[in-house]
Design brief:
The complex is a heterodimer of chains A (295) and B (156).
Chain A lengths: L2 E3 L4 H7 L7 E4 L5 H6 L7 E4 L4 H4 L2 E4 L2 E5 L4 H6 L8 H8 L4 H6 L2 H7 L6 H7 L3 E6 L2 E6 L4 E3 L2 E2 L6 E8 L5 E8 L10 E9 L6 E11 L3 E4 L1 H7 L6 H14 L10 H29 L2
Parallel strand pairs in A: 1-3, 2-3
Antiparallel strand pairs in A: 4-5, 5-10, 6-7, 6-10, 8-9, 11-12, 12-13, 13-14
Helix pairs in contact in A: 9-10, 10-11
Chain B lengths: L3 E7 L2 E7 L5 H8 L18 E4 L2 E4 L12 E3 L12 H8 L9 H14 L5 H7 L11 H14 L1
Parallel strand pairs in B: 1-5
Antiparallel strand pairs in B: 1-2, 3-4, 3-5
Classes of the chains: A alpha+beta (295), B alpha+beta (156).
C-alpha cells in the first residue's frame, strides 16, 4: 500500500471515503489484515486507519434494554465488562478462547464484523442476539441486521463509502441465556473447526422453550447462518432427551457444512450435534439456576 | 518510500522516525531504533514473541503497523528494569530456569509484568492463561509458572 489516511474524527473519515471508497481498506487493529497484506492475499492501495477515532467509536453503552457497542471496542474490553457477566455469557465463552491474550487486546468488534472470515467468533453470537449493525456514511446511518451482514466468505454488505460504527442488540430478559462453543484441535490460539452460538428463552413456568435462536459458522459458502428449521422444531417443546435427539436430526439435515484441510463436513456435523445438545442444556440449567437464586 | 512522520514514545523517550506505510511496529523498533528484544518468530500472530505494550496493553508488534503507534507509548523489556540489574521478576525467572535459549523471554517478561500489574496473587490457571499466547520451546512452561508464583511470594 502506498497511502495511509489517518483521520481524527469520524466525520473526517467519512468524507475521506465519500468518493473513492472502493479502493480503501478500513483498518481496525490490523491483527487480521496485516498478515494478509504481507502474503499479498490482498493488495490495498490505500488504508484508512481508525486508531485516531477511539474517543468516538470505543464505547459500551446501555439505553434501556438496548446495549450498544462501538466498532473499536476490543474483545478484551467485552470480557472485562460487568454487563457481559451473566446472560451474555456467550461473549465470555467466546472471548476466553479468542486468539491469545495479546490478540484479545487488539482485535475489535468492528474488525471482526468487517473481516467476516469463517473464524470470526463474535458474528454467530451477534446473530443469536438478533443484533443490528449501524453503518455510518456521509449520507447518514444505515442499519443492517447482522444475520444479513455476511454475504459470502470475507464479503459483507458494506458500501464503499461506509464505516461500521456500532452494533446493538437487546439485553436478554431473566428467562433467557446465551451460550457459545467452539471446537478446535486445542484450547489456545485455535482457528475453530466449527462454532455455535445460542440464545434460549424459557416460558413462564420454565418447562418449555419459548424462543430460541441458533447460529453456526461455516455454513454454505463458509458464511455464518441461523438454523431456522432446528429453531422452529424446538420452539414450544419441553427439553427432554427425545426432543434433543430429534432436534439433532433436524440440524443434521438442515445445515450444509463444508470440508477443508482442517476437518471434513461429516466430522463437523457430528460435532455440531453434540454442541447443540450441550448448549441447550447449558442455557436451560443457567436460567433455572438464576431463578432459584433470584438473579 | 518513507513518507509518514511517526512521533511516539518508546520506553519513556520521545521518538520521531520517518516510516514507510508498510512498516510494522516491530520493524521500526528493531531496524530503526535498534531495540532488539521484540523478536519475529512467525510474523502471523501465532507465537507472541514480538509482544510489546502499546499504551500499557500487551500487543503483537508484528500485527501492528508503525503508523498506528502515533501519539502512543510503547514499552519493551529494555524499558522494564534499570538496564543494569535484574528486577526481582527477572531474577525469579532466571533462578527457576525459566529463561533458557532466551528467545521468548522478552515477550514472557512483558506478559508476566502485565499480569502482576493487574492481579496480586495470580493462580496457576491465571498465569497459564496469561502466557498462553507466547510460545516457548525450551522450558515446557512449568518453570515459568513456578517463577511467577515465587515473585509474589517474595513480595509478600
Amino acid at each position: 500500500m502506498t497511502e495511509v489516511l489517518m483521520p481524527n474524527t469520524l466525520a473526517e473519515a467519512l468524507s475521506m471515503i465519500s468518493k473513492d471508497g472502493h479502493d480503501v481498506l478500513i483498518l481496525g487493529s490490523g491483527s487480521d489484515v496485516i498478515p494478509r497484506i504481507r502474503e499479498r492475499e490482498i493488495e490495498p492501495k490505500k488504508v484508512l486507519d481508525l486508531s485516531g477515532l477511539g474517543s468516538e467509536l470505543n464505547y459500551i453503552r446501555t439505553e434501556g434494554k438496548v446495549i450498544r457497542i462501538g466498532a473499536l471496542v476490543t474483545v478484551r474490553q467485552i470480557i472485562d465488562n460487568e454487563l457481559f457477566k451473566g446472560r451474555l455469557d456467550a461473549f465470555l465463552q467466546a472471548g476466553r478462547m479468542f486468539g491469545g491474550p495479546q490478540i484479545r487486546n487488539m482485535a475489535t468488534v468492528g474488525g471482526n464484523l468487517g473481516a467476516a472470515s469463517s473464524s470470526e467468533d463474535l458474528i454467530p453470537i451477534f446473530i443469536a442476539l438478533d443484533a443490528r449493525v449501524k453503518m455510518a456514511s456521509i449520507d447518514g446511518d444505515r442499519l443492517v441486521p447482522v444475520s444479513k451482514l455476511v454475504v459470502a466468505k470475507r464479503q459483507i454488505d458494506r458500501r464503499p463509502n461506509e464505516i461500521i460504527r456500532e452494533i446493538y442488540f437487546e439485553m436478554p430478559d431473566e428467562s433467557s441465556w446465551t451460550a457459545f462453543f467452539k471446537a478446535g484441535r486445542r484450547n489456545s490460539l485455535i482457528i475453530d473447526l466449527i462454532n455455535m452460538a445460542m440464545y434460549l428463552k424459557l416460558n413462564i413456568d420454565g418447562t418449555k422453550i419459548e424462543d430460541i435462536r441458533i447460529a453456526l459458522n461455516r455454513v454454505r459458502g463458509k458464511t455464518p447462518e441461523r438454523a431456522y428449521k432446528t429453531e422452529e422444531y424446538l420452539r414450544g417443546k419441553r427439553i427432554e432427551n427425545e426432543t434433543i435427539a430429534r432436534a439433532q436430526e433436524v440440524l443434521d439435515s438442515e445445515v450444509q457444512l463444508s470440508s477443508d484441510f482442517r476437518a471434513s463436513a461429516e466430522y463437523r456435523k457430528s460435532l455440531d450435534k453434540v454442541i447443540l445438545a450441550r448448549l441447550i442444556n447449558n442455557c436451560r440449567d443457567r436460567i433455572v439456576e438464576g431463578r432459584r437464586t433470584g438473579n | 518510500m518513507k513518507d509518514i512522520l511517526l512521533e511516539f514514545k518508546v520506553n519513556g523517550q520521545p521518538k520521531k522516525v520517518y516510516v514507510d506505510p508498510n512498516d510494522r511496529l516491530l520493524d521500526v523498533l528493531r531496524d530503526y531504533l535498534d531495540i532488539k528484544s521484540p523478536k519475529e518468530g512467525c510474523g502471523t500472530g501465532d507465537c507472541g514473541l514480538c509482544t510489546v505494550t502499546l499504551d500499557g496493553k500487551p500487543v503483537l508488534s508484528c500485527l501492528t503497523f508503525a503508523f498506528q503507534a502515533r501519539g502512543k507509548e510503547v514499552t519493551t523489556v529494555e524499558g522494564l528494569g534499570n538496564g543494569k540489574e535484574l528486577s526481582p521478576m527477572q531474577q525469579a525467572l532466571r533462578d527457576a530456569g525459566a529463561a533458557q535459549c532466551g528467545f521468548c523471554t522478552p515477550a514472557m517478561e512483558i506478559m508476566v509484568t502485565d499480569l502482576l500489574k493487574r492481579v496480586d496473587n495470580p493462580t496457576d490457571s491465571q498465569i497459564k492463561e496469561q502466557i498462553s499466547g507466547t510460545l516457548c520451546r525450551c522450558t515446557g512452561y512449568y518453570p515459568i509458572v513456578e517463577a511467577v508464583k515465587k515473585i509474589k511470594e517474595e513480595e509478600r
